[in-house]
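Lecture notes, unit on binding sites. The following record was shown on slide 14. It pairs a sequence with zinc ion.
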Amino acid sequence: MKNNFLSTKVKTLLTGQKKTWELLRNNYEQLSQVKVRTFTFHDFKIEIQFNPGRIISSSAKVDKRSIQARKCFLCIENLPEVQQKLAFGKDYLILCNPYPIFREHFTIPKLNHIQQEIKGNFEAMLDISKELDALTVFYNGPECGASAPDHFHFQAGNKFFMPVENEYENLKQKAGKAWFINETISVYGIKDYLRKFVSLESNNKSSLLKTFNLIYAELETKAPSGQEPLLNILASFHDERWRIILFPRSKHRPSQYFNKGTKNILISPAAVDMGGVFIIPQEKDFNKITKENIIDIFRQISVSDRYFKDLKTAVQKRII
Ligand SMILES: [Zn+2]
């Protein structure tokens, strides 16, 4: 870990906000006593975090009308007075997230109010994850967990908090299929993990950008026209290399979200859930969720075997 200037400033920002912002301080105190359940599968685990503070995000209405009816909470003029900010380059702000999931949790919005769309913004994800290398930067698509789909933003939290980050090397070795490898980049597909993902590893930014764009272009052909393909992305930087984990999605919220009565589970899966930590804001769900529910939720929100196989074939054709 580099002890670079911005990493230090970000830590100082959070320490300061814990002193001056009561809501944030209270939520961080609650997080320190958060209840967690762990479900073990063969080679990996899924954690369930009971986090009542996340109810706002999990139940957020993200339809156009609801979005238009509220003030954007990421626009600089609407931030609470107590909220302090750091600049990242000339386009981004770094803010402390007052509803944390991680011990250190940041929201990184663009200064401009423009819609959530990774196309054209992936390079910034690489830059931010390299600079803030104690953190993993993540992106939730506008229909994959972003509670502000109208204002472009990333989030960042402590590296290795999500199980997938610790399980990655083992998964790759045992179940990873190399989609493409050359001297600058490795692309793998992982499918027997309840959910599926594509990983990109490289120390070469332009190669990552090019390959990401190829994969994205293919995902785009499979998405309804004019809509961003459903996805979540994790980006981290260690040992002088980036590691990108891209989860293509087939839907935003599972049937459990909409079910009534005892079958209801309020879960609105985003990058952290895909990374292996289910964020559950209601205690009733935290207590009752089962291994079968986890398997079923991933089956619904991750892409099918067929989709993933076709994606692999198409990406290989594009790359080679
Ligand atoms: Zn905004």
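Take-home: DSSP finds twelve helices and 13 strands in the chain.
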